[in-house]
Amino acid sequence: VVSGKRHDLRSLDVCSIDPPGCTDIDDALHATRLPNGNFQVGVHIADVTNFVKPKTAMDTEAAYRSTTVYLVDRRIDMLPELLGTNLCSLMSNVDRLAFSCMWELDNDANIVSAQFHKSVIHSKASLTYDQAQARIDDSAQHDTITTSIRDLNMLAKKLRARRMEAGALTLSSPEVRFRLENDSQDPVDVELKALKETNALVEEFMLLANISVARKIYEHFPDAAMLRRHPEPLAQSFDSLQQALKPLNIQLETGSSLALAQSLDRAVLPDDPYFNNLVRILTTRCMMQAQYFCSGTLTPDEFRHYGLATEIYTHFTSPIRRYADVMVHRLLHAAVDRDAGYASELTNKVAMAEQSDVLNHRHRMAQQAGRASVELYTSLFFKGKTVDEEGYVTQVLQNGFSVLIPSYGVEGIVYTTSKGDTPALEYDKAAHSLVSSDASVSIGLFQHVRVVLQVDDSPVSANVGSMRRKLLLQLVEPHVPGLSLTETELSAIRATKPTQRSEAQIIELVTTHPEQVQSI
Hints:
Blueprint: E1 7-8, E2 15-18, E3 27-33, E4 39-46, H1 57-65, E5 69-70, E6 75-76, H2 81-87, E7 95-105, E8 111-122, E9 125-128, H3 129-137, H4 144-166, E10 176-180, E11 187-192, H5 197-220, E12 226-229, H6 239-245, H7 257-266, H8 275-284, E13 291-294, H9 323-336, H10 349-382, E14 387-397, E15 400-405, E16 410-415, E17 425-428, E18 433-436, E19 442-443, E20 448-456, E21 470-477, H11 487-495, H12 503-512
Parallel strand pairs: 1-8, 2-9
Antiparallel strand pairs: 3-4, 4-7, 5-6, 7-8, 10-11, 12-13, 14-15, 14-20, 15-16, 17-18, 18-19, 20-21
């Protein structure tokens, strides 16, 4: 600060808003009203690059890991705990180093000016989404932090409305949250993650920061900027979904992200409030994956992020858990401080492109690990239980169909045949549905079904034993002879005693002795 290399922002009413239990706090925000009626808004991001220098052992390991991996009961950090949860983390009531994006915004959330600089901040509060939402909703609270959050929320709503008008997509996925028992870490409850206004508040300003930084680093490093793109989906990817929606007189317009967003808003059934969310879930599965890339390897026309409806985008706001953001911080520092030294790889587009491939691969692997963790804990939660629930058909296969159960946010497959058996339902390729032999029953996308859900304890192989346990879904309604369970069979299933191995034993074996399990 004394040397002029950092701006002293410790007097600002900065706060962070994160999920409960978050200790690796990447970002904090503030909003202050200016004398001219506009707002000064700041997004302050942990200054990881102050501690992680290029070509050090720590940097090499972080580049290799590329991302923090989040599992149900733990996380596997990209950076050492001392940095991620202490020195870099923007916890409250201590001075912390940050990289700040500062805007002047007018009352309609238009950017009047933008600045980027290294800073020192002193967060006044570390809030959860629920706590921040409570401050917004409590009319009796008028302290400076609450006023700042309300101003941010007002501006975030206008930013979001403008993004929606430009064609940004609101997609969906069934994300579940487990409540774990403190001692054993057994899952005692499972629920869908609920989003609040404050989730959208944080998201909007993180998006604004990422877009603003992307423009800045591309301006200064047109051949070596680390950016993120989301390719336009192929029209044929929507064929099955369009076919299923046609009998409902609903059509998705896929010519542009704006047309798709507008048609998704119209995809409603008055008697089924969950239907629109289901369509968005299935639309998400038609999309291509977003990718990191080096700006010098593609033409500007290919930079576009389809889902966010922006011409340029990057990741800047989570350097504690993403190495792409670390690279972007170094680029931004070099762009705003002519005296800042930087490693040669920042201008080497071949090296940047190679690192982009590593980032994309590691991101996919982290996603798969996270899903496998949810699958494991879902099996643990339902072990010994028999649940009779309604669901929606989300995918039709030649030998079965996937069912999403909204009350739990879980998905599984009902198989229509086993090896060597005659199928109870035949696949109709033209209609993309499963049809009974007498044509009295048809199973297609979006159809309501009733299923019994339990954990299949039968071993997959002699080597794996009973460790690879999957959710078993059995059809109850509609009734298909030879496939649907009868009342007698339902009673027998409910009377079956669970296996004796406890959840704690399962977790212990999987997490502490993975060498004993070939596949989890």
